[in-house]
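quick one before i forget lol
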Amino acid sequence: MTTEKSYKSMVCPFCSLHCDDLIIETSDNNIRLTQGNPECGKKISRHNINPQSRTSATINKKKTRLTEALKKVKKIIEKKSEVLILNHGTDLSGLRSLLAFASKYHCIIDHITSKFLFQNIGIVQRTGYIATSLMETKNRADTIIIFGNNILKKNPRLLDRVLIPDASLCVNPKKKNIILVGSFDKKTINSISKKSNAINIKIKLDNIPDFLKIINNNKPESLKFITKQSLVKINSIIKKSKYLVSTWTASDFSNTKNPEDIISSISKFIVDLNIASRAACMPISGPLADSTSAQALTWLTGFPSRIKYSNNSFKHNRTAYNSEKLIENKQVDTIIHVSNLSENELIMNKHIYNIVLGHPNSKLNIEPDIFIPIGIPGLDHEGIMFRTDNVVSVALKSVRKLKLPSTQTIFNKLI
């Protein structure tokens, strides 16, 4: 018999905005979005169970009971000399138990997207930084500069929830100026133009530092990639703005020549604007609980990522504990992949022993030595995650009765 149930005000765990106004319907443990952005609906539907879903543990490709898989993991970990826990995304309780496990077995911990985290943190450490929150941007920003090519695709509701919402305390959305720097499709630009004043500066992302340098100097000089007329118009908008916010996601700059130089130039631009007016940065973190991981690890260890438990405490070394280099140079003999927020392909090195605590719909480039399916926070069990601006922690509900253990449950059994 099919049982259907509706949930209001669901918190979505699948991007760092963690919108809390979704309405969903569950039927036989499958989930359908009934109210909200269609792109979010597509994201959520990818987490439904299907005939290809992995709902049983495996050892060397053979199905086994969870208890047997856990016994095998314990035996392996006790024999190995260097174990890396690679976090592909999990909730707060999962991180707490992961840290407890790492302290017992002296493991290295890194997040799969830590390179983007350190690009942003590097600016804070070297030159300082002025940041704002999602709600401050929603209610007070009259000019917003969006840097990058895919930020709006990665965060489908950034526009309607934060940048140009229907309701704002202090700013009429129709009077907002949205400056898009990068390659944006016509559909996106037209959609923004219907609600606000939209300008697209279509330049290569590598040219952002030069573009901002000209804007900062307040001189309408000509550059190869932008007309003098466009520069005059942008200068006028910025000069009249009462509260300007710049936003980006670091992963958009991953294919540029110098991502850190781009982020540094944006930060400097904002700092310089604050001499005469008000401006702030609002970077958007990735969808793999990047903010949750950085927050939890910083509280509990003093460091956001790339740590190892040694001599009764966690030590940090940005270079020595960089998971990419450790795997590339085969400096670890076992990797525990923790991934319960994404079904995207998980890339493993066949020369290293791989244990996966994974999403039931995980795509894998090779078969891991041990696979243990785990539940998804916000769908299969309750949890807590941090929003991208690190201002708000959100409570996730359990909305389906799929009997898969949480990350916390698995690590607690292994301790």
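fyi DSSP finds 14 helices and 19 strands in the chain.
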